[in-house]
């Protein structure tokens, strides 16, 4: 199969590991060691082609360690995660994207912006509209997810597919 590498980036505790584990292993982890970085692989069939998708769950803990060179280089796309209950994590997504652009020298990169913890609606600090506006500005998909309730967790493959119906997760 063809291969694709995707990095999942965002402020600490926005739910990156929870999203990746829910997507790859179909369960929710209540607590996952925050500094472990790991890579998961999924095989996806899209428009007749099989793709082996490597998903790197990053574990940077602050603005300086969130994006290191090995996260930014040789990636086919980025899943940028914030929590809808945290304004600072939303701001961090912008900082991370700027760093990726700086690092790669590109004017835009393939990314999906994910607002996780959609189940925490009473603690909401970022409206769905604000999330969508950012996506329009960057011309990328945006989606709200709940890793906890397994809602919209298929976000990762929006990166290289334009149709969910045509996409099949094989293993
Ligand atoms: P990471 O540092 O970005 O990898 O974040 P984790 O995946 O370790 O999650 C941080 C905390 O948020 C943990 O306590 C998770 O159980 C919790 N969490 C993750 N996703 C969700 C979600 O969708 N909803 C709620 N309510 N909590 C979540
Ligand atoms: Mg983590």
TrEMBL record:
Signal peptide: none annotated. It is found in: Endomembrane system. Belongs to the small GTPase superfamily. Rheb family. This is Uncharacterized protein. It comes from Parasitella parasitica.
